[in-house]
Write a structure and sequence with these properties.
two-stranded antiparallel sheet, nine-stranded mixed beta sheet, 11 strands, alpha/beta, about 35% helix, Peroxisomal Thiolase, Chain A, domain 1
Length: about 400
């Protein structure tokens, strides 16, 4: 398989503030993110040769790339829409990267957005059946709660031990999010607040679940050999992985419930391309899909950042905190930003991009000399994952 390593560079990124953006439509957020990315790259919008839009909202289904083309006046060039559940933003980035690596285009745009707050989408379910009461289907918190329960059982954690371990993830992410100017939720919480919060689906409480937000993020990608024409500190794509597993993995016989195979396969693809042998030692920071605290814990192990069954020890040791050996979700993650589905993957990449450049918004957020960063999304039932590895140096 051909590797994408060092063939594509990110030279500009933009991200609007995530939140209940009642005063902004989807167009407004797309424009804000795109024009920040234009300014960051120092380019004119007319230099964009092709664009990819990532969004999952039903409102936009059947409209192809027109929402982006209309908002940014990208008329007369190819504009495509992609969708891959919660991995949608990364899928836009992946398609744009492959188009540049192929030699088809020199300068392209990848943008993800979602306007969830206006849809009334509650975040608790994934559809209802014909009967309004008797045929209520599963909810996302309930599905991930089952994963938490199984993980606790499989690795011999008591309910109290397990919940306290997950609470530490929530506390970490809220602490990081409080320092992130573009985060939706910017307030620290204590372990006691997390443990005493209302239960959503046992053992997951309110602070174990990410919220719904509006948001948009964008990236300008160019051929790697052109990158320094745009800026002195481009960020290079080192590896891209995407994998899909069974449509309903937790309904498959023998499903283990202690991880997500799509993440493991996507990570292997990205690591192989990037030449990473030991991600725990080689990755400087990671942005992982923390739709729930248990998801982040399982991601540690699926991505090879913790040995199987050992995530609790790393959490207790502070390994993934902002000043730890391997910071995870240094911007606060989905827990602080919420999850405007099509935007999340590019928002995660925005954080990696800024950290690698040494340009985190506040000095106390900036990591010390990061070299390689990872961004990961997990979506579907959950059945699809994307992993992106970026580096500050061209090999």
């Amino acid at each position: 398989m051909e590797s994408i390593k060092d063939k594509v560079a990110i030279v500009g990124m933009g991200c609007c503030r995530f939140g209940e953006n009642w005063d902004q439509g989807g167009d407004d957020m797309m424009i804000e993110a795109a024009y920040e990315s234009y300014a960051d790259a120092g380019i004119d919008p007319k230099q964009i040769q092709a664009a990819w839009l990532g969004t999952v909202s039903a409102h936009w289904i059947g409209m192809a790339g027109l929402p982006l083309a209309e908002a940014l006046k990208l008329h007369g060039i190819p504009v495509s829409r992609v969708e891959a559940y919660c991995a949608t933003g990364h899928e836009a980035l992946r398609h744009a990267s492959m188009a540049v690596a192929s030699g088809m285009y020199d300068v392209v745009l990848a943008l993800g957005f979602e306007k969830l707050k206006d849809t009334g989408f509650p975040g608790l379910g994934v559809g209802r059946g014909m009967h309004p009461v008797l045929e209520v289907r599963r909810t996302s918190p309930a599905s991930f709660a089952l994963a938490a329960t199984r993980y606790f059982y499989h690795y011999s954690l008591s309910l109290e031990e397990g919940k306290r371990t997950l609470a530490k993830i929530s506390v970490k992410n809220h602490k990081n999010g409080a320092l992130s100017p573009k985060a939706h939720l910017r307030r620290e919480v204590t372990i006691e607040q997390v443990l005493n919060a209302p239960i959503i689906a046992s053992p997951l409480g309110l602070f174990d679940c990410c919220g719904n937000s509006d948001g948009s993020a964008a990236a300008i990608l160019v051929r790697a050999d052109m990158a320094r024409q745009f800026r002195a500190d481009p960020v290079y794509i080192k590896g891209l992985g995407q994998a899909q597993m069974a449509m309903m993995p937790h309904f498959q016989p023998g499903y283990h419930w202690t991880g997500f195979d799509a993440t493991t396969f996507a990570a292997k693809q990205a690591y192989d391309q990037a030449g990473i042998k030991d991600p725990r030692k080689e990755i400087s920071l990671a942005e992982v899909h923390d739709c729930f605290t248990i998801t982040e814990l399982l991601n540690y192990e699926d991505l090879g950042l913790s040995p199987r069954g050992k995530a609790k020890q790393d959490i207790d040791a502070g390994t993934f905190e902002l000043n730890g050996a391997l910071p995870v979700n240094s911007d606060g993650g989905l827990k602080s930003f919420g999850h405007p589905v099509g935007a999340s993957g590019l928002r995660m990449t925005y954080e990696v991009y800024k950290q690698l450049q040494g340009k985190a918004q506040l000095p106390q957020r900036q990591l010390k000399d990061p070299r390689l960063g990872l961004a990961h999304t997990l979506g579907g039932h959950p059945s699809i994952s994307c992993v992106v590895v970026c580096g500050k140096d061209k090999g």
